[in-house]
Design goal:
By secondary structure, the protein is mainly α. Helices cover 64% and strands 2% of the residues. The protein has 18 helices and five strands. It has a three-stranded antiparallel sheet. A two-stranded antiparallel ribbon has the order 1-5. Helix 2 packs across helix 7, helix 12 runs parallel beside helix 15 and helix 13 packs antiparallel against helix 17. The protein is globular and about 75 Å long.
Amino acid sequence: MKTLSRTTTDETKSSRDAGVNVADLPSKDERGRATLPQVKEEDADEALKIVGETRTEFSEAAYDAVLRKVDKRVPPLLAAVYFLQFLDKTSLNYSSIMGLPIEGQAYNLCSLSFYLGYLVWEWPTQLLAQRFPMAKYLGMNVVIWGGVLLCHAAAPRLKQTFSWFKIIYIILGAISLLVGMVVLIYLPDSPATAKFLTEEERIIAIERVRDNQTGTSNKTWKKEQFLEALKDPRSWLIVLATLLSANLIQHRRSVRIINKVDTSGSIPNGGLSAFTSKIIKSFGYTSRISLLLNVPKGAIAAATTLSLGYWSDKAGERMLPILASVGPTILGCAMLVGFDADREKFKVGCIIGMFLTATYGSGLSILYSWNASNIGGSTKRSTLNVLLMISFAAGNCVGGEIFLPQDAPGYIPGKIACLVLFSALAVVALLLRWVNLVFNKRKATALAEAIRVNGWTEEDVRQERDKAAFLDLTDGKNIFFVYMP
């Protein structure tokens, strides 16, 4: 069985110098030096079969040409899927003021069911996504979800009379079906299998991501990577950050109860956007105006997501943009607290506060991208994805409990709790950034020692880094991996 040998590093360096879990890394060669693990060829990244361990050089013009070709195909399709993901999650929100005959606790349970589905299906879907072609699996999920949305309009309890909310489900369901089929046909599973690229262009596309050290795809589940994910302290910091963000998101839903004019509601346990229209309507606006006032909130979310995402990408930062997104949200929550005494008089201030809370959505998207840029090894990355989404769902399920009926009508303790949670999230973000910076210093020290011991030239280092790129090594076991703070 063919193995891919790895380079040596000095045994005198502590395993912690290369970052998290590097104590699992070394074995000894015949000269007593510590070696990086040997990898079976079938356990390596699928890109390795195409480009091998040695980098193939191309001109910048060739890289740019392939990038433009990929950008015309992949980002628009992914943007369409994300757009539908967020739009579909607001379908309950919009239908709630467009004649949906579900109110009170039944409405809360409808919203809650979405996140219960997260909890039940998250682990199986990650296993399936790793085992099957990613784009095909994604497309099938979008198609199935489109069918589910269409069924909403035909539910036995709801089909007796015509109402505008059914149009919402029909339109969104039909669009989801269409986009899902387009994804199935046109979205490639990875650069290694992109049929719209020529063989040479696929090699160029893969070489562009070699320096990331995160690989492209591997379909083998690896127990050691699973255990490393559980041992990595950053995994639990991300889980904590996601739990805090989910509870904060829950706050923005719970404001529906805080600002509710009538007395028919109970504390909600549902989805992020399930109550936004009801919140705005409770300030004294009509259903039509409430829907229109969702537009600037969405525009703010889109603008901050694009601007902070651009900053995050160009600066190689993750946590600082998240902190920038949290600040306006804290201000928005403070305005909702301050104007609570007279919502009718200060409804413009309440609306502005509600708009400001939209900035946090960009932070949540960057939090998701942290995993892709800071975790190596396909199984480890999938495991952390599962932990992240389970914590997101769990936080949304329980977050509403900080708003208790006995605190009515102001629910001041719940609002204060949300401000504390935002502050805690900022601390966790700073801690995550610090940990990654510390690990980068340890990696740099270990690499410098390996260069000294082995007598590597700059060209040797480049070649060894290229070899490690597609071996599906975890970040902890890859001395060349660089974390993004």
